[in-house]
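Postdoc handover notes: sequence design on the structure in folder B. Input tokens:
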């Protein structure tokens, strides 16, 4: 019953929050204006700046922010118990994450689509622009590495996902050409695409699983699978191409298609959770501890690490990059900002709630083991030790979250698998076979990560070009050179080993707390920009000031713990000195930016920042048809 009540209560609560708190922010704080000219129309170039229907831009925004973060983070964090994770997701997404995303979007819309880093230079101090861009460079490098690695792991563990994920790319290009060149309506082609994607999921599960190592005759051996390494580089090569293409050609239609696919899968998960809870098949209380006491001795403390382990799903600094980096350049009216910025974050919070339930109540419904190779594989019930009974309940959860193995054994593969298998159990409650259910959920994870990956590459390209222009490195102002550097840095970090004896690409769990801490510090700094924007306009700031303080203190505390904690700290470990240097750089930049803010705090209230120069009256001629068929 707890599963049913939590699943239903969370989504009802999000709907209420959208129409109350979200509406207050939109109308009373930011005063959205239907007549305000937005960047997509001011600077329209039909490459990055493209006026877009709110349903289409919502699809892009949601799929870009909801990568593997709201899946991997909660899947790891429930080892502390499901209750702390649930509380942080529910209240964090409403009062922290959605405020952050919506605020960053509005600030960017009011500043010609500039990123929060660029705006910081005028709202706080000129030097903060460079500081912010450097932090963005570091954060996006880790994002590219971790998300590329996660998709590669999915493709390696679940080869049935390969065709469904890749087939969306050519379909998206066809739809993009139809909509942009022929002014076709987007809805019908995207629904046809959805049917094709789900047909490919079925074909991938039962007929066409693809193992890239086998396909190219490469032995899949060693401490870390060669398939993961190969897929990582293939994915980064794809991102290099996708990130320089016009947004209407691939990014927008691909994300719109994926949004249908992902929302459908999320809806199936929610219905499955409700049915499993109502019928008693899913028992949250009996399957996992609300607050765990048997945790690995070497695990980090819940306080502050809960707040960086679960980033996306509660609050994520990466979202400010999407809000101000791509979405603000496509929103066609300020009236759409609440729907896109606040609404998408609440839906991501809903996804994180489902992940928590799947990793606890779903896993407790019974675990499964993959048996066989190629198209002949199947999933067989995992038996409890010494019995012919399927491993289920608390025993199944404790097997997945085995404290005796230590924190170091909490790999990304196991945690992603907990959600996929638990989610497939929910789908099984509504009659979907386990083999097909696992394929649907695995495609869900890979598709979310893929949309984030090439959006992050595009954002990193912007950051590198901005930095290059600022410090006068002319070659890197070229979008192709900047993109090449972006994927090269991401690939280097992705191949980082967990230890001297482990293979390349095995350091995923090391990267996650690094990603979490850097990402959440970025959220705190984005909140600082939002606070200064409101303070200079004599607007209330307490609702943003408190989250800002939390998101500055918690991740800094976690980063310092990682750097200096006893014998396990990065400072004391020769194999992790590069992580220590990374941490020093991030903390140093944060402290510097906070000092810049404090220096201008007292004289900022009621004093508007320097305004942008007037736009040139001469604008390039472009097509008059916006993406999504809107004029």
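Designed sequence:
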């Amino acid at each position: 019953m707890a599963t049913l009540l939590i699943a239903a209560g969370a989504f009802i609560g999000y709907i209420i929050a959208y129409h109350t708190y979200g509406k207050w922010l939109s109308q009373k704080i930011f005063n959205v204006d239907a007549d305000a000219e937005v960047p997509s129309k001011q600077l329209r170039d039909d490459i990055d700046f493209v006026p877009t229907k709110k349903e289409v831009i919502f699809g892009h925004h949601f799929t870009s922010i909801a990568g593997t973060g709201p899946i991997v983070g909660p899947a790891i964090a429930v080892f502390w118990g499901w209750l702390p994770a649930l509380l942080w997701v529910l209240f964090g997404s409403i009062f922290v994450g959605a405020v952050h995303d919506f605020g960053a979007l509005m600030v960017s819309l009011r500043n010609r689509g500039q990123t929060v880093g660029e705006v910081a230079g005028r709202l706080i101090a000129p030097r903060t622009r460079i500081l912010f861009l450097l932090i963005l460079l570091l954060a996006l490098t880790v994002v590219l590495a971790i998300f590329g690695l996660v998709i590669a792991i999915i493709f390696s563990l679940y080869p049935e996902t390969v065709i469904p994920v890749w087939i969306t790319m050519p379909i998206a290009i066809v739809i993009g050409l139809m909509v942009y060149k022929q002014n076709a309506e987007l809805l019908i082609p995207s629904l046809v695409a959805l049917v094709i994607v789900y047909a490919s999921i079925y074909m991938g599960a039962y007929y066409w699983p693809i193992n890239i190592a086998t396909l190219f005759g490469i032995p899949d051996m060693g401490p870390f699978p060669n398939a993961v390494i190969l897929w990582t580089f293939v994915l980064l090569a794809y991102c290099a191409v996708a990130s320089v293409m016009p947004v209407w050609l691939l990014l927008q239609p691909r994300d719109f298609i994926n949004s249908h696919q992902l929302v459908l899968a999320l809806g199936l998960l929610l219905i499955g959770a409700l049915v499993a809870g109502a019928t008693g098949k899913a028992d949250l209380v009996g399957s996992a501890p609300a607050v765990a006491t048997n945790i690995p001795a070497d695990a980090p403390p819940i306080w502050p690490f809960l707040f960086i382990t679960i980033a996306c799903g509660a609050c994520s600094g990466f979202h400010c990059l999407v809000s101000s980096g791509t979405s603000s350049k496509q929103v066609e009216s300020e009236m759409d900002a609440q729907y896109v910025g606040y609404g998408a974050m609440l839906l991501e919070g809903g996804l994180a709630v489902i992940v928590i339930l799947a990793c606890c109540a779903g896993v407790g419904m019974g675990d499964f083991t993959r048996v066989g190779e190629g198209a002949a594989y199947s999933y067989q019930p995992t038996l409890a030790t010494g019995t012919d009974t399927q491993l289920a309940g608390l025993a199944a959860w404790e097997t997945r979250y085995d404290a005796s193995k230590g924190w170091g054994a909490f790999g990304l593969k196991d945690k992603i698998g907990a959600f996929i298998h638990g989610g497939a159990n929910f789908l099984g409650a509504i009659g979907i076979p386990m083999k097909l259910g696992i394929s649907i959920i695995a495609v869900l994870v890979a598709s979310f990560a893929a949309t984030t990956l090439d959006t992050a590459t595009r954002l990193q390209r912007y950051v590198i070009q901005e930095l290059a222009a600022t410090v006068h490195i002319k070659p890197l102002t070229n979008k192709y050179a900047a993109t090449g550097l972006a994927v090269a840095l991401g690939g280097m970090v992705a191949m980082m080993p967990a230890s001297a004896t482990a293979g390349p690409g095995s350091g995923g769990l090391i990267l996650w707390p690094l990603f979490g801490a850097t990402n959440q510090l970025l959220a705190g700094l984005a909140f600082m920009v939002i606070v200064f924007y409101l303070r200079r306009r004599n607007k209330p700031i307490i609702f943003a000031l408190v989250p800002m303080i939390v998101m500055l203190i918690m991740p800094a505390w976690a980063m310092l713990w990682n750097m200096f904690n006893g014998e396990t700290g990065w400072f004391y470990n020769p194999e992790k000195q590069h992580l220590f240097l990374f941490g020093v750089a991030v903390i140093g930049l944060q402290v510097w930016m906070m000092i810049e803010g404090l220096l201008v705090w007292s004289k900022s209230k009621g004093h508007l920042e320097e305004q942008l120069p007037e736009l040139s009256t001469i604008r390039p001629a472009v097509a008059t048809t916006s993406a999504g068929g809107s004029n």
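Context for whoever picks this up: The radius of gyration is 23 Å. Don't rerun without checking with the PI first.
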